[in-house]
Amino acid sequence: MTNATYTKEDAVHELHRLMALMTGDEKHSTAATSTLDALWVLYDRVLRVSPETAADQERDRFLLSKGHGPMAYYAVLAAKGFFGEELLAGFGAYASPLGHHPDRTLVPGAEIGSGSLGHGLPLAVGSVLGLRAQGLTEPRVWVLIGDAELDEGSNHEAIGYAGPAGLEQLHTLVIDNGSATYGWPGGIASRFEAAGWSAETVDGRDHEALYAAFTAPHPGRPRAVVARVEPKNA
Length: 234
Description:
It is built from 8 helices and 5 strands, in the order αααβααβαβαβαβ. With 234 residues, it is of the alpha/beta class. α6 (153-165) links the parallel β2 and β3 (170-176). α1 packs across α4 (71-79), α3 (36-46) packs parallel to α4 (71-79) and α5 runs parallel beside α6. The protein is globular and about 45 Å long.
């Protein structure tokens, strides 16, 4: 899929085929499928990273905070050539590099080990600060979190810091499947906007809407995109 243009239908069909290769005792299939469309749009049309540039200092960084359902992530990485699809059949097995939580030392293309709620966004803030300290102002940092992760105070500290600090290189994608315990007047995007972020809410299955939101300019501010998908228990 790397060297051709695919329609949304073709891409999603191929990704579901790749996900079907992963069998075994997977407890978070809904968490995985909720991220599928947004991950594909990011890797296919937005992120400046490839298997050939995965070690390049100027690459974009993608951090999967929502690491407790990584099947869609693995399918996208395989589709983009970070590793061969033959690895997918061993998903979750003892000797497989593809665990139920991604391990950055084992999974080609993975920037962080993840799965514990609330860690990814603070790590993304630190990644931007680290890039700035090295004078690297072009690479963008993307982090994908689930709406339930916003129940964790660590994320609100990161949100509250990043806005006033003007971390323009920081982009947060929130997959909203109605899992959060707490809510916010005006919706999730309003929480980011209150801290000085540029924020937008879109249909998490609409590829063109996702692309437009991902690429919207936001000078001097971090960017948050809330992608709404079907409720977890629907």
